[in-house]
Amino acid sequence: MGQGSLSKALKKLEDRLKNKLFVREGRGLRLTEFGILIQKQIIELKENWESGIEETQATLDNISGLFRVGAHQSIAIDWYPEVIPELIERHRTLEFDLVFKNSSLVTREVIDHTLDIGVVANPLRHPNLVIKKLKREYVSLWTKNTKDHEKVIYYNPEMIQIAKVLKEFKDYKHVPITSYELLAVFGLKSKGIFLLPNSVAERFKYLNKMGKNLSHVDICLIYHVDRPRTRAFKKILSSF
User: Fold this and answer.
1) pLDDT tens digits, one per residue of 185-232
2) N or C: where does the chain have the smaller number of CB atoms within 10 Å of the terminal CB?
3) How confident is the model at residue 48 (pLDDT cuts 50, 70, 90)?
4) What is the pTM of this model?
5) Any idea which fold 3-61 has?
6) Which CATH class is domain 136-216?
7) In terms of C-beta density within 10 A (0-12 exposed, 13-18 middle, 19 or more buried), how is residue 71 classed?
């Protein structure tokens, strides 16, 4: 910067601060009392900034921090126990806030940066999402007795493509229940049939599969494309 530009910048700064920073002495400048105070504050600010950067860098290099992870409860039952306990017990400064919502809401909150990670079914394709397929699940009919059942079908109304599936059972009584686990438990006492993902039904040994698979669902890990890839974040991703 030339001397003329520097003088103009200094004058503009002094006008903004409404105080003189320097006084002229011969061919040089000397800090005023106000200038000395400002200098001390700037040095202190610089030291705090550098210290903060060092602490931030240390945090990024450590497996620590709080992460918000979202999933539907039925999906969480399958995936969280395989991942979360080992991480929080091995890394004492790593914490999780586990959020339970349906897959569409989890996907929206990952896009909006409200959640760090989501485990969802058939996520919406979006330019701001990174999607990693974990597993393909199948939706089928299940019942306690495949040869003797009532014409009653129990289902979760939040299931993907449920309207299309139910069209094949127009002559059945339709009973909606918004919990896959409760649906499966009903199967212990009911003679009806149950529309369930295989991951849920297979946890209940008294249920038997009827016929072919009716549809499939891809369970995916999702996160925002701009999410900082800290060491802790990479460790969580690799654990799924």
Assistant:
1) 999 999 999 999 999 999 999 999 999 998 899 999 999 999 888 889
2) N
3) confident
4) 0.68
5) Arc Repressor Mutant, subunit A (1.10.10)
6) alpha beta
7) buried
